[in-house]
Amino acid sequence: MLELTPGVGGQPHGAPRVRGMWCACCVNEAPAEEVVTAVSAPPDAKEEETMELRAAFVQEPAKPKESEPKAETPEIKVVPAPPPAPPAPPAPPSPAPEPKEKELKKKTDSALAVRQPAESYVVKVSKEGGKLGGGLDASQEDCCVFRRVDLGGALDRKGVRVYDRVVKVNGEAKKSSELVQRIKEATDLELYMERPKVKEVLMKKAGKKVGLRLNSDEECLGLIVKEVTGGVAADMPKGTFEPKDRIVEINGQSMKTADMLKRMSELDSISLTVCSYSL
């Protein structure tokens, strides 16, 4: 390994002063090729200035911004709508109003309208405390009808109405007096009933007689038609009055038979409510 010694002392006279190092073995030899060690010169001022300017204009790459946390999207649950409610059933038709006097069809000066058709039905009923809750009119042997139905009683709860006729009791058809006796004796009853056809008859006498022969027994419920004798009644359509029909109201009012007869004779225009049975 060679030891380098700085060029002092053994440097030949007249040799140019060169930066560098001489090896010790070559100090006294004739100068040959100079051994030069290149040392990098310090950068001059202009180069340093240029480097600084470059550094000033060279921008460091921008650091990516930290992404802000995204707002959480609220979870939306889709709830299916309930099925539509089924349409409400149509309301039952309201019953036709009872015909008024001015609504009745006219034939000559009088008119007839059927307010209620006849109807048959069966009732099974038991006495409560020995009572049915009603009263019978047995004045006509062939037509036993209820003259009273107590509100809230056994008959009322079964739908029996005033003027409904008892046809059979426990399967037996009897005269009115016998039907009443069967009803008194039995506790559990099966009643075959008839609801009458109800007619509204408008009569304008215009100086004529009514033309009806009537049963005016005070014990009877209403006036019983016995016969058409002429007058206004004979001018009415056929079937307006039948034997055993019951006139139960005059001008919409029920009253004693004597008062009914008086109204029929005094008034020129009268409206009669008549119940007809299949006798």
Describe the protein:
- The longest helix is centred in the N-terminal third of the chain and has 13 residues, at 45-57.
- The strands form three sheets. Strands 3-9-13-12-11-10 form a six-stranded antiparallel β-sheet.
- 15% of the residues lie in helices and 28% in strands.
- The protein folds into three domains: 1-49, no CATH class; 119-195, PDZ domain (Pdz3 Domain), CATH 2.30.42.10; 198-276, Pdz3 Domain, CATH 2.30.42.10.
- It is flat, with a radius of gyration of 66 Å.
- By secondary structure, the protein is of the alpha+beta class.
- Mean pLDDT is 76; it is low at 1-39 and 95-108.
- The chain is built from five helices and 13 strands.
In brief, what are we looking at here?
With 279 residues, the protein is α+β, with helices and mostly antiparallel strands.
Please give a handful of descriptors for the protein shown.
279 residues, alpha+beta, Pdz3 Domain, 5-stranded antiparallel sheet, 13 strands, 28% strand, disordered N terminus
Global morphology: flat
Q: Would you tell me the structural class of the helices and strands? A: alpha+beta
Element order, helices and strands?
Answer: EEHEEEEHEHEEEEHEHE
Q: Can you tell me the CATH topology of the largest domain?
A: Pdz3 Domain
Spatially, the strands of the biggest sheet line up as 3-9-13-12-11-10
Strand tally: 13
| Major sheet summary line | 6 strands, antiparallel
Task: Extract low-pLDDT stretches.
Answer: 1-39, 95-108
C-alpha-based Rg, rounded = 66 Å
CATH architecture of the largest domain: Roll
CATH superfamily of the largest domain: PDZ domain
Q: What gap, in angstroms, lies between the N and C termini?
A: 162 Å
Number of domains: 3
The level 1 CATH classification of the largest domain is Mainly Beta
Give me the oligomer status.
single chain
The averaged pLDDT comes out at 76
Strand coverage percent = 25-35%
Helix content: 10-25%
Number of helices: 5
